[in-house]
Structures are given as C-alpha cells and as structure tokens.
Amino acid sequence: MEAQSHPKVAVVGMSEAGRGWATLVSAAGWPLTIYDPDAAVLQSSDEEIATRKRHSQGSGFPAITDEGDALPGDPRLGRSLLNAVTDADWIIDATIGDLLHRQRLLEQVEGVARMAAVLTCSAPGLSPTELCARLRRPSRLLVARGFDPVEHIPAVEVVPGPLTDRASLDLVRGWLRQLGRIPVVLRKEIPGNATGRLTAALWRECIRLVLDGVLEVRDVDALISSGLAARLAAAGPFQTAYLEAGERQTAQLSALLRALESRWEGDTGFQLASAEHQQLIRLIERAYDGEGDVLRGAREERLTELRRIVGY
Fold this sequence. Notes:
alpha/beta, 11% strand, globular, 2 domains
C-alpha cells in the first residue's frame, strides 16, 4: 500500500486512547472498525465517538479529508476480534493491560490479520522489543502513542524496534501526517520511551513540591497549566533556551545550562561533564542556527493565540 492512500483502520480497545484514535480516524472519513470485548463499552464508545467528532469539527478541528472525498462516515462495530481486524491495513492496539496481556492480544491479532497489516500499540512506556515477543512478523509492529485527548493534541511518539522494517515506519509516519499529526520518531529504544521519561521527571518534581509543603496541589496545577505549559507550547525547551541566549549564543547557552544544573540540589547525576555540556550547546545551535527571528515571531504568535483561546 502506498503511504499516501487511505488505509482501512481497526481500533482494538475502547479506552480513552482508543476512543480518541477512533474519533480522529472517523473525522478523516477513513474506513474504520472499532472493537472491544465488552459489548456495552463498545456501544457507548460508538455514541461518544460521534459526539466527540461533532464537537471537534464544530470547534475548528482541522479539515483532513481531501477535496472530493465523501463526508466522514460512522465507524463499523466489530462483532469479534477476527471480524474487526481481518481486512485492516492499520491495526491500533488501544487496550488497557500489562505487558503479558498486550503480548497475548497482539499474538491473537497477528493470527487473524492480513500479513501486510501494520500494528501499532499505544501503550505508554512499553517498547516494541517487549511487545513483539510472541509475534512471527515483528517487522510490522511499532509503538505509536498520542496524548489524550488524541484528536486534539497533534504530537505522536513513534517508536520502531530493532526488527521494525523501514516500510512499516514510513507507512505509519505517512498516515499520521495525513491525519494532521506530528510524528516524532525515536532513533532508538529506551526504557519508558521519551514521553514516559519526560512525564516521570515532571511528576517527580510536582509530587515533591506538594509533599515537601512548598505548594498546594492547585498551585502546582496553575503553575504548570498557566506558566510552563504555555511557555513550552509556544517553543520547546531547547528552542526556548536558544531564543533566550540571544546574540551571545554559545556563552549564554552555557550559562543557562549551568544555571539549570544548579537547581537540582543533591542530584549529582544531572551534572553534565564538560564534553557533554559543549556537545549539547553544539546540537542546539545546529538545530536552530540562523532561525532566531523567525522562531521568535512564531513563538509570539502562538502565545497570543493561546492567550485568546485559554484566557491567560
């Protein structure tokens, strides 16, 4: 299948992530089947997906169907796992369960799916190597994890494993882009994946601030949602550092990084070696060299729009 064609999609598991993926795919007008072993959950999810799709489209949701395409249709309800995935090109595992549960499910899916079907798993923190332990065709499996609600947050973490073939990665990346997503591909597997690592680091500090009596729970949430989250939504951490450094790039970036390190009292593991410190500065400068004015203007536009929407 060409990366630019519309795949037949099956979403297995009507978790919050599953309903989000189904909403996104259904809004695009792609052929979609949803399945959950709990018939009551499946029925209520079908109704919720319709509501979420209407809400999304009515609130400026990106138009992601091509000109001339039919209007988005309703998802088909799978009567069984076999019925749901047998004709699918892209199968999304959005179930809830531990590693063993997911391994068994993926094994069952592979047993009834087309040989050319691509499997993606939305499990947070699990790696393709762990997930494909029972598969005969591990080359067709990737992790593709969005942030809830999936239909509203464009970034998707994509994790290929050592056995994932390039064709599968290219297909998933192309499909995600057609859905208006921003696929962020990890260059190698790491424990917890990137989103898990970043989330854990933020949670660690939030928890300590509350338990150490520094801030109340509501204060932490306000500081994140109306402060750090807004700032990082306009420009990520490295881009923000680059813009703050201004004309004295190398010297100022070095000072910013050293100041950041000093805030982790007692955490000697965060102190960068001199070689790593210099390498990081080079990587930041290489990523954004010469784009300062453009990036600064884009950041201001995003912040203005955020203030308008959220009411900062």
